[in-house]
Structure formats: C-alpha cells, structure tokens
Write a structure and sequence with these properties.
The chain has 447 residues and is an alpha/beta fold. It has helices at residues 7-11, 14-35, 37-42, 66-74, 113-129, 151-160, 172-181, 191-208, 228-238, 353-363, 400-418, and strands at 93-98, 108-112, 137-140, 163-166, 186-189, 216-219, 242-249, 253-259, 266-268, 274-279, 294-301, 312-322, 333-339, 344-346, 349-351, 373-376, 383-384, 388-393, 422-427, 442-444.
C-alpha cells in the first residue's frame, strides 16, 4: 500500500498539477512586482493582466539568474538587509540563511513565518518520499547553522515526527559513536561521507559494543548516489538496502527532489509551492517532460514571501528517467547529470566532471575507490588545452605493478570513451576528502 505525504498533489495527473500551479502564479505575479523591487524591474514590461494557464505561458517572463540576485543584494540597507528582492518588511523576517559561499561572497535568503512552514512541509515531503517515517531516529550531519541545509532540513525531519539527532558540528569519529549510542535508524549524508561511514561503521560497532540500527541512508549535498558502484559499496559496508538520493537548491527550497521505493531517479516533491520547467540551456527554449530528455531545471516559487524567484535558472542539468512510476507519484523522475557551472571544455569538447567520474568509477570498480577529484588552475578556468588533472584513490587490494599501470589505463579509457585527455595521479586510499557537507568533484589550485 503506497503512502504519500500529500496524496492529492502527488498522484494527480502532472498536467493538472501544472494547471493548478499556473493559477497560483497568475495571482502571485502582480503582487510580486509591488513587493520586490527586483521583480518590479525585471518584469517592468509584463502586463498585470498576464494569465499563466500552463507551464508554456511562463515563457512570457524573463529568466532570473544568480547574478540578478547578487546585484539585488548589493542594494541592501537598514530597512532591506536582503536588498532589492526582499519581499516582506524587515519586521516579518524570522530567519536569514546563506548560500554555502563556496564560490565568492555568499548570497542571503530570508524566511517569513509562512516561508518556514512552506520549507518544513516541502522538505518533509521529500524525506517522506525517501522513506523517513515517524519513529525513525535520524542523524542530521550538516554542521553549519546558517546554511539552507541546517535548520530547514531539521524542521523537515521533525515535521514528519521523526526523532532529530543533530550531530553536525562534532568531529567525525564522535558523530559515528553518537550514532551507535542513539540507535540511529536513518541518516542524511553526502555521498562521500556515506562512503566514509561504510568503511568505519563495523569498527565503531566493535568499540561501542552496540549493534547497528541503521536501516536508511538518504544522500544529498553532492551528486553521485545514482552511481551503481558507489551504491553497491555503501549498501555493502552498512549492511542495509535503503539508499535514496535527494536534491534541492538553497535559492529555492533546499530539498525538492527525492527517490521513492523504486530507487530509479528522484521525484519532484515541491509541487505545492514551486512550478518547474525544463529548458534547453543554450536557447532558453522550454522542453517537454519526456523520458530520456535532458535539460536545465528552472524554478518559480509561487508561495515564497521573503525572497521569491521566478523562472530561476538552477544551472542543474537533469535527465528525465521516467514520467510514470510504480509508486503512483505523477511528478517527473530525474537524475542530476551535472551543473552548467562545472562544465569544462577540452579542445572544443564539452564534458561534465561527473561524466568523467561516473565512467572511471564504473570501469575501474574494485581497483580504485569510488571517488574522484579534478583540478582547475583557477575558479574561472573552463577550457583545457592540456590534459585535465584528475586524482583517484587506489584500492588497497592492488599490488605495486597493478598500481603503477593504473594511471595510464584510466587515461586511455577516458580518451577512447569521451575524446578527452586527463592526467591521472593515483593516491593512497583515504587521500581524498570525505566531508559532511557539499564536497566538490572540482577543486581549484589558487595561487
Ligand atoms: Zn516513484
């Protein structure tokens, strides 16, 4: 018997969901231009009478880019600490959150009391789809209270009625011990932390003498949970079978997508608050939701009060896995295939770092650890005319001769498969970072 967080919206035909959302957007738009100076400017040429009847009608509106939000924030002042896109008076803001700030100065977002409710409900919907239930004891590992993955994620777990154990911020070894002591049944982890855990979990069990109660792992914060070799390693190391990927965006709602029990791609779970589009990133044209289609995800918040966004370009590239599902949910099912920001060009060939990682990890399973790091000379570097520097970790099982041959074999395979040259450095096992929040595949050698 299938269970849903919001049975009506999750099982309605997707076109009907879109029509309902379009009606919400129609009502929201004129009010938005009065609330947000950013949208008064961006939508200056849009008629108050514009009626949005379907997702296609959104094309009458301009996109919002991250740079638009940055510029809007530059206008911050005492009355508007969030700048031109502050959609409510200062008195109505109950929380400020920040982007993780891994690239440049962080962006700030605000929550009104209603926004807090919206976040909690939408995020609970994702956790529920991913299998979290009342009675679960959940380890929440994000240790940065200011980021969108902090309190909003915690609120989502409590909204379901699960027991929140906010362990983020402790050293890793302590987190692992606390998880045994608290009889944690579920955790939300980055892909690389889940891998780290899978390597240490048995040892912690011996030290504490407490049997593992861990049954469910939710992946989030970095792509990779869809990678078969990685899934196999985590599932094997932790002795569990429930491994689900989740994804969101701090600028919109920090978790909006979650995998159901079918475990083949993530459903959109924020349909009550956010309208979704798939576009061609080059032309900006809307694309149909069709199995096998790929494009950039674009979000319109129609219920967000404090820092709303309309047609926000996420830079996340998705592949549509399916438009129907055995679980009965009707929202598109996707997997994230990369970020536009991460796209590299090797002698005219476009390549996503995730494509290199997935190929190498898959083909060299058992000989390397399922992690990979790629180096750029500067944050701005997109083009490579020489081989792209890549680091992998050798599996402990390799002998010296096998290890010596490894780099060359990986380089040849990638050149053959992707027409891209890489220069591989083989590290010892444990040589790559395994953090609890947003690990990047791409690293930058700043001078
Ligand atoms: Zn499903």
């Amino acid at each position: 018997m299938a269970e849903y967080w919001n049975a009506e919206l999750e099982t309605q035909p997707w076109l009907e969901v879109e029509r309902w959302q379009a009606a919400q957007v129609t009502v929201m738009l004129p009010a938005l231009r009065r609330r947000s100076r950013l949208y008064a400017r961006l939508h200056a040429g849009v008629a108050d009478s514009l009626a949005v009847r379907s997702a296609a009608d959104l094309a009458a509106l301009p996109f919002t880019l991250k740079d638009d939000l940055r510029i809007a924030q530059l206008a911050a002042g005492e009355a508007e600490p969030l700048g031109e896109n502050q959609g409510v008076p200062r008195d109505e803001l109950v929380q400020a959150i920040s982007s993780s700030g891994t690239t440049g100065r962080p962006l700030y977002y605000g929550l009104s009391a209603r926004d807090v409710e919206i976040f909690a409900d939408a995020i609970a919907n994702v956790w529920f789809t991913a299998g979290i239930r009342r009675g679960d004891i959940v380890a929440h590992l994000v240790g940065l209270p200011m980021v969108a993955g902090g309190l909003p994620y915690a609120d989502g777990f409590r909204r379901i009625g699960a027991t929140l154990c906010w362990l983020g911020g402790f050293p890793t070894e302590r987190i692992l011990r606390e998880m045994r002591h608290l009889r944690v049944t579920a955790m939300l982890a980055t892909t690389s932390f889940a891998l780290h855990l899978s390597e240490k979990w048995d040892q912690v069990g011996c030290e504490t003498g407490i049997a593992s109660c861990l049954r469910k792992v939710l992946g989030g914060g970095e792509p990779g949970m869809a990678q078969p070799e990685l899934r196999r390693r985590i599932v094997g190391g932790l002795g569990l079978s429930h491994l689900r990927e989740t994804m969101g965006l701090g600028d919109v709602i920090p978790s909006m997508w979650g995998e159901c029990e079918v475990e083949e791609g993530m459903h959109f779970n924020a349909q009550r608050y956010v309208m979704l589009e798939l576009i061609d990133p080059e032309s900006g044209q809307a694309l149909p939701w069709r199995e096998g289609g790929t494009g950039e995800l674009v979000y319109t918040t129609f219920a967000r009060e404090a820092t709303p966004v309309v047609r926000y370009r996420s830079r996340d590239h998705a592949e549509v896995v399916a438009m129907r599902c055995a679980c009965g949910r009707t929202s598109p099912r996707i997997r994230c295939i990369g970020r536009t920001d991460d796209m590299l060009v090797y002698k005219g060939m476009n390549v996503f770092p995730t494509a290199i990682r997935d190929l190498v990890v898959d083909r060299f399973a058992g000989r390397i650890e399922p992690l990979l790091r790629l180096w750029k000379a500067s944050r701005e570097q997109v083009r490579f005319d020489v081989a792209i520097p890549v680091e992998v970790e050798a599996s402990a099982a390799l002998d010296d001769a096998q290890r010596a041959a490894l780099a060359g074999e990986i380089e040849t395979m990638v050149r053959t498969q992707l027409q891209v040259r890489i220069a591989v450095t083989v590290l010892d096992r444990g040589g790559l970072p395994r953090g609890v929040y947003k690990n990047a595949i791409v690293a930058v050698r700043e001078p």
